[in-house]
Design brief:
With 92 residues, the chain is mainly beta. It has one helix and five strands. The protein starts with a strand and ends with a strand.
């Protein structure tokens, strides 16, 4: 289960932390409030492809991290996107 999603320098987001509780969690908000950015960040933590166009203007790289729990065992994933460089991701 996803416990927390941390985003830094992705698109328009300088820094954001979203914590998820047990059960159903919903993302709601007005048009342009960033719901799709949260979904995109989750996709990147799960191995989705990112590009330099997703890195916030003026930043060297974008970082997304997800904290998951499976059967009470914590796990995390992290991914970084750098403009005009190779894409790397790590899981622990």
């Amino acid at each position: 289960m996803l416990k927390e999603l941390r985003v830094r320098d992705l698109a328009l987001v300088a820094e954001c932390r979203v914590r998820f509780g047990p059960g159903l969690n919903l993302l709601t908000g007005e048009t342009g409030s960033g719901k799709s950015l949260i979904v995109d960040a989750l996709s990147l933590t799960l191995g989705g492809r990112g590009g330099a166009d997703q890195v916030r203007h003026g930043a060297d790289r974008a970082t997304v991290e997800g904290a998951f729990e499976s059967d009470g065992t914590p796990a995390s994933t992290a991914g970084r996107r750098r403009p005009k460089r190779s894409v790397s991701a790590a899981a622990t």
